Amino acid sequence: MITGIEAFKGINISGIGNFRGITINNGGHSSGGHRVSIIKKHGGKYKQVPYINEYIKEIAEENRCHTFIELTGGGGRNILNLPMFEMDGDIYEFGRKIYNEYDRGLCNLFNCVKDPIKVQQLRTLLLKLGRDEELYRYAIDNKSKEDIPELLSAAFTYMAAMLSWSGNCQKESYLRGKTDEDSKKIEKEYFRKIKKLTKNSSSLRDIEIINGDYKPLLKKYGADPKVVKYIDPPYHPITRNQAALDIYDLEWKREDHQKLVRELLECRSWILSGYDPLVWSCEDYLPLEKAGAKKINLGVFMSGTNSTKTRKFDKEEYLWIMK
Ligand SMILES: C[S@@+](CC[C@H](N)C(=O)[O-])C[C@H]1O[C@@H](n2cnc3c(N)ncnc32)[C@H](O)[C@@H]1O
């Protein structure tokens, strides 16, 4: 959708440069700058957003895209921070945005944050539930279960992510703090973020939330060049610590990645995020490059809880892009 520039006159939106006296924000091409984030997410792409946005923008410009789909949504950092840019003298934005995620708890959380009344209820509930390790462990086991009501499932999902190290939702990763002072800091920060949830409600206003497998959406919109598809699947197992496989929710096996590659070969206007299996001598993603997908090495992202620097070696983040 192209939005008339006149609507923005007189408004100062900070960021990518000056356009007819108006400064426009695309999230900035640096690791700094403010980005919307609702929860921490293991494998999340918070730091990478500005770089990925450059390529989303390229595809959108070239194919005149009207829709953006985040197929394996997670913390939804991309869809929450999509670029705004100039095209044909107007400010360009996607007319339709879809967040798709298999996990019921994450969808319940996003649906509650999106709704101005439910987000208030969620905030009150989280403040009441407090920070408690036993409840945290219970939340991990129950957050996505079908028989848990939406609001409670949203609260459990929030708790499991925000009270675990790096948002990995693992029982042994509860953020306790080494000292009393650390523990107080963690608690203060947790409640500060809960109080901020209502502010994030408007960022989700025009995002459709779908709770399901990515495959039907990719089948429906994959070949349409006017629909940008972004997919950041669970890590390829070859790139993972081999002593700790199958510990996260919804892990993918090698065959799941091979299937995705076969599906992407039939599609256009897509971006795939991840580590490159080829670094581990596995050729599973190679057919994408052979079919003309551009492979971009984004390098190592070191700061923050989602650091890709490991004791053994630095894992580099990649994108595969097909216009
Ligand atoms: C690496 S995370 C995405 C992180 C996200 N890019 C962010 O910045 O927060 C992968 C997500 O894919 C979801 N997922 C796994 N299998 C899926 C499937 N078949 N369809 C849709 N989502 C799936 C997982 O639940 C997880 O939230």
From TrEMBL:
Gene3D superfamilies for the chain: Adenine-specific Methyltransferase, Domain 2, Vaccinia Virus protein VP39
Transmembrane residue ranges: none
InterPro entries per UniProt: Ade_MeTrfase_dom_2 (IPR023095), MeTrfase_D12 (IPR012327), SAM-dependent_MTases_sf (IPR029063)
EC number: 2.1.1.72
SUPFAM superfamilies: S-adenosyl-L-methionine-dependent methyltransferases
Example of a GO MF term: sequence-specific DNA binding
Top-rank taxon: Bacteria
Recorded catalytic activity of this chain's protein: a 2'-deoxyadenosine in DNA + S-adenosyl-L-methionine = an N(6)-methyl-2'-deoxyadenosine in DNA + S-adenosyl-L-homocysteine + H(+)
Keywords: Methyltransferase, S-adenosyl-L-methionine, Transferase
GO biological process, one term: mismatch repair
Any Pfam family: MethyltransfD12
Family to which this protein belongs: Belongs to the N(4)/N(6)-methyltransferase family.
Name the record gives this protein: site-specific DNA-methyltransferase (adenine-specific)
Organism: Clostridium aceticum
